[in-house]
Write a structure and sequence with these properties.
This is RiboL-PSP-HEPN domain-containing protein. It comes from Escherichia coli. A two-stranded antiparallel sheet has the order 1-2. The chain has one domain (12-183). 55% of the residues lie in helices and 5% in strands. A hairpin with a 6-residue loop joins strand 1 and strand 2. It is mainly α. The radius of gyration is 21 Å and the shape is globular. The chain contains six helices and two strands; from the N terminus they run H-H-H-H-H-E-E-H.
């Protein structure tokens, strides 16, 4: 029997699965550069999953097309706030740890998507090279990187590690759990 069906696609789950897979690949990767790239990609996917989640939640709100278009232009956190105000009459608790971490993850994502030119001072070790170049300048990094006080992730996105990816994944899950069960009041049991 042939028939037409309507399927609603919620991309959150596939995007979240991508973030987990990228983390897993980064964790098992031996090449340091590839590990950092996979970690950064996982963190970006966490942000995409966050946006997909809030867009899914917006489906629970019955809006006309004009208001829907305006809400679609809200920032990610403002969309979460809108949902809580619509359903519960409360604002998104911006001071809560989970919200602060997600806000910082969004800022990290924005910095990656809209990079600015920056000047950095480095200590370098200069040595004679046996290759085509006369001298080799290698950054003297001691393996310690500045850590964000809010997320506990490395501040330098070019130095992201699987540990940073895991923090981002756990932060997304913690925020969504708190949003759905705690603030929105939906019992998942």
């Amino acid at each position: 029997m042939k028939r037409s069906v309507e399927i609603t696609d919620n991309s959150f789950f596939s995007i979240f699965a991508d973030a987990v897979l990228l983390y897993d690949l980064a964790l098992s990767e031996s090449n340091d550069y590839i590990r950092r790239v996979l970690s950064k990609s996982s963190i970006l996917s966490v942000n995409y999953a966050l946006e997909a989640a809030v867009n899914s939640f917006l489906e629970s709100v019955d809006l006309n097309s004009k208001i829907s278009n305006q809400v679609d232009r809200f920032s990610t956190l403002d969309k979460f706030d809108f949902i809580l105000q619509w359903h519960k009459g409360i604002s998104l608790p911006r001071g809560e740890k989970e919200t602060q971490v997600v806000k910082r993850l969004i800022e990290l994502r924005n910095n990656l998507v809209h990079p600015k030119v920056k000047t950095t001072r480095l200590d370098v070790m200069t040595s004679r090279s046996d290759g085509e170049f006369l001298y080799c300048h290698k950054a003297d990094v001691s393996g310690s990187f500045d850590i964000c006080k809010i997320t506990k992730m490395t501040l330098d996105s070019s130095s992201y590690s699987p540990a940073d990816s895991l923090i981002a994944l756990q932060s997304l899950v913690a925020f969504l759990n708190k949003f759905i069960e705690g603030w929105w009041g939906i019992d998942l049991r």
